[in-house]
Design a protein that fits this description.
Helix content is 36%, strand content 16%. The protein is an alpha/beta fold and 511 residues long. It folds into 2 domains: 165 residues, Ribosomal Protein S5, domain 2; 292 residues, Rossmann fold (3-Layer(aba) Sandwich), CATH 3.40.50.300.
C-alpha cells in the first residue's frame, strides 16, 4: 500500500506542494528516493533510517521506495526528512493515523530522531499558507520570530517521537518558544543631524525616500556622497510585519546572515562584485544583492567602476521590481523592489569642476569615463545631485533636523500615496496615466515641462520621472493638487550634471 504525506517545495520564493509517496515491502533491503532529488535529498535515506532505528523501528529486509511528486521539479535541501519518516512509518503500519493533504511536515532529522531547522523554513511556511495548507509540523528556529499566521496552525516539535504522539492523539507538552527579545535597534547609520551643511542634498534624499525615487550623486572625493547614502536608510519608514518576513525569507534562501529587524535592508556591494552576485544566479539560482536589498536600499559606490554588463543587467529589475533567472533545468523569480543610490566621481581624477583642485583629465578621458554609465541606466535615475565639499568654518551653528523628524514627514507622504492608489505603492513606481487620473489639474500645468523637455531632448521616461517627482513633492507638502512650484523643484532635482558628453567638455573649457 502506498501512503502519501504532504511537504512543501520551493522554486525561488514560490512554493508548491510535494506529495511524498512511500511504499515499503518485503524484499532485498534497499532505500530508494526518486523524483529528481539532489545530493542532500538522496542523503535523507541515511538520516531517516538512522533516526527510525534509534527509536526501535527496523528496516531490515524491507525495500523502501519514495517518490517526491511532482517528479518533473528538482527537489533540494533536507527539508523533506520529517515527511519521509512519517510516510515510512505509515507504510510499515507502525503508525495508524490519517494524514490529510492539508497537513504538511517540514524539517531535517538528526541521527537520534531530533528534528532541526534548516534553511528555507520561513519561505516554506509562507508558501504553505498560500497553498491552502491548514496545519504545519516544524521545528522552532531561534533565529526567527514566533510565527503567528492567520489561517494556518503551526505545531512546533523537537523530535520525531513528539510528532508520532501528537498524530496518535496523545497530548504532548505544549511548546512555548520564548519570543525574540526586542533588541535595541543598534545601527551604524548616520543621523541627519550629524551631517553639517548639504541642506539641498538632504531635501533630495527626503523626496527620494517619500516616493521611492532612485538617486544619483556626483562630486569630488570626500564631498560626502557615501556619508549621505549611509544616512538615507535612517529616514525610511520601518518595514511592516509582512515585509519583514518576506525579506527574511530571501536571506534564508541565500544563506546570508541577517537578524530579524524592522529596519529596511541596506546593501553596498564592492565594485569588484560579479554580475551573478549582484543580480543572482548560480547552478541552483540564489538571490543576489538586488533581492537582498528588497524593500530597502542598494548603494553602488563608484558606480562607474562596476562592469558595464553588470550595470545593464539592472535595467529590467529597476522597472519591474523583480528579477527572473533562467537556467537549463529551472526558472525562478525573486522580488527586487529596491531603491537604488549611485555615486561616482565626475572624471577619472575626480576633480572636474572642483574649486580647490585642478582636473588633469583630458576631454577624451572624461567622455570615456562618463560613457561607462549607459544612457538607459542614467534614464532609470529620478534625482541627480552634484555635490561639493562643505566648508566647515563657514557653516553657522544651527539646529539641524534629526532623521526621526524627516522620517515622520516621509511616512505621512507615503500614507497619502497608499490611500490615493488603494495599495502600498509609491509615486516612483506608478504609471503616468494613474498619476494624472489622481491629480486634478496636473495635466494643465505641464506646458512648461513639455517645452523644457523639447529643449533638453528628454526621453519620455525622463519626463515621467519629473511628473512623479512633482507628485511626491506635493505629497510632502500635504497637498492634493500639484502646483507649478512643485514642478519647478522637480525639474531642478532632475537636472543632470556632467551627464552628457558636451556638458563635460563645456565644463572643462569654462574652468
Amino acid at each position: 500500500m502506498t501512503n502519501k504525506v504532504t511537504s512543501v517545495g520551493l522554486k525561488g520564493l514560490e512554493g508548491y506542494k510535494v506529495s511524498v509517496e512511500v511504499r515499503v515491502r518485503q524484499g532485498t533491503e534497499s532505500f530508494v528516493i526518486v523524483g529528481l532529488p539532489d545530493a542532500s535529498v538522496k542523503e535523507s535515506k541515511e538520516r531517516v533510517a538512522a533516526a527510525l532505528h534509534g527509536m526501535g523501528y527496523t528496516l531490515a529486509n524491507q525495500k523502501v521506495i519514495i517518490n517526491l511528486s511532482p517528479s518533473e521539479l528538482k527537489k533540494t535541501g533536507p527539508l523533506y526528512d520529517l515527511s519521509m519518516a512519517i510516510g515510512v512509518l505509515l507504510s510499515m503500519e507502525e503508525l495508524s493515523v490519517r494524514c490529510p493533504e492539508s497537513t504538511a511536515f517540514l524539517g531535517a532529522l538528526s541521527l537520534d530522531g531530533g528534528v532541526r531547522a534548516v534553511e528555507g523554513m520561513l519561505p516554506s511556511v509562507l508558501a504553505a499558507k498560500k497553498l491552502g495548507i491548514s496545519k504545519v509540523y516544524m521545528p522552532f528556529d531561534p533565529e526567527l520570530p514566533v510565527l503567528e499566521l492567520d489561517g494556518i496552525e503551526i505545531i512546533y516539535i523537537s523530535n520525531l517521537e513528539e510528532v508520532i504522539q501528537h498524530l496518535s492523539g496523545q497530548n504532548i507538552l505544549p511548546f512555548h518558544p520564548l519570543p525574540l527579545k526586542a533588541k535595541e535597534e543598534v545601527t551604524t547609520l548616520i543621523n541627519f543631524n550629524q551631517i553639517i551643511g548639504h541642506s539641498y542634498a538632504k531635501r533630495a534624499l527626503e523626496v527620494a525616500a517619500a516616493g521611492e525615487h532612485h538617486l544619483f550623486m556626483t562630486g569630488p572625493p570626500g564631498c560626502g556622497k557615501s556619508m549621505l547614502a549611509e544616512s538615507f536608510p535612517s529616514i525610511l519608514p520601518p518595514l511592516t510585519k509582512e515585509a519583514q518576513l518576506e525579506v527574511m525569507s530571501l536571506y534564508q534562501i541565500s544563506t546570508s546572515m541577517s537578524e530579524y529587524s524592522s529596519n529596511p535592508p541596506y546593501r553596498y556591494p564592492h565594485h569588484s562584485a560579479s554580475g551573478v552576485s549582484i543580480i543572482g544566479g548560480g547552478q541552483n539560482p540564489k538571490p543576489g544583492e538586488i533581492s537582498l536589498a528588497h524593500k530597502g536600499v542598494l548603494f553602488l559606490d563608484e558606480i562607474a567602476e562596476f562592469t558595464k554588463k553588470t550595470l545593464d543587467m539592472l535595467r529590467q529589475p529597476l522597472e519591474s521590481g523583480k528579477v527572473t533567472i533562467s537556467r537549463a533545468h529551472s526558472t525562478v523569480t525573486y522580488p527586487a523592489s529596491f531603491l537604488l543610490i549611485g555615486a561616482m566621481n565626475p572624471c577619472p581624477c575626480g576633480y572636474l569642476g572642483a574649486l580647490t583642485h585642478y582636473c588633469t583629465c583630458t576631454e577624451k578621458q572624461i567622455i570615456s569615463y562618463q560613457n561607462r554609465l549607459s544612457g538607459p541606466i542614467r534614464d532609470r535615475f529620478d534625482l541627480f545631485l552634484n555635490l561639493a565639499p562643505v566648508n566647515l568654518k563657514e557653516q553657522k551653528e544651527e539646529e539641524r533636523e534629526s532623521s526621526e523628524e524627516v522620517q515622520k514627514r516621509v511616512e505621512k507622504a507615503r500614507f497619502l500615496q497608499y490611500e490615493r492608489y488603494g495599495e502600498e505603492i509609491c509615486n516612483g513606481r506608478v504609471d503616468y496615466q494613474r498619476i494624472i487620473n489622481h491629480s486634478p489639474g496636473l495635466q494643465d500645468r505641464l506646458h512648461y515641462l513639455n517645452n523644457l523637455s523639447l529643449k533638453r531632448n528628454w526621453s519620455n521616461r525622463a519626463q515621467l520621472k519629473v511628473v512623479r517627482l512633482a507628485r511626491t513633492i506635493a505629497d510632502l507638502a500635504g497637498l492634493e493638487e500639484v502646483e507649478e512650484r512643485h514642478i519647478w523643484e522637480a525639474v531642478k532635482l532632475h537636472r543632470r550634471p556632467y551627464s552628457e558628453k558636451h556638458s563635460a567638455v563645456r565644463t572643462i573649457s569654462e574652468s
